[in-house]
Amino acid sequence: MSRLFFSALCLTFVLFSCKNSNENEGNLTTKKDNQEITEKDISNIDYIEFLLDEKTEKHTNNWLEYKQIQEIISNIKKGDLTFLYDNRAVVDSTLTELKLYIPEPLNSPSISARINAFETKMLKLESIYNLNTTKNDELLEALKDFFIAFSNLNLQMNKKVEFDNLDIQKP
Questions:
Q1: What is the pTM of this model?
Q2: Which domain of life does this protein belong to (predicted)?
């Protein structure tokens, strides 16, 4: 009798545990679907975007890593966040190369600090995007911080080039 009871208990446990795993998978899929961000959502983000000055663009023309980051940001603004999805090694190598190959006219502590701030915001965005529990509002806030950090990097590069071009006469 105890064997029969034990077998029935095990069978019941197996049946209920299988049902729970199917429900959990459905919840994860639903959560990822709720995390979809559209181009319209991104265009509604309010921030000041600084673009590169013509003089600064001359210095960044051969900076391939910066061009790659610009392309990634362009794709993200279109709602394509696939670059961030479980791609930590590529994100890390891109950011490392961005810091490593700064063109000489732009290589200054202030620009390195802005690159570090941008790196922090990009890694934060990547980690928030890959969480299953992230809400759209949190993701949009991380996107805003990411765009602001890149805009501030552009502003700092513009300031550096402008300051270097000033001809200050000392008495």
A1: 0.77
A2: Bacteria
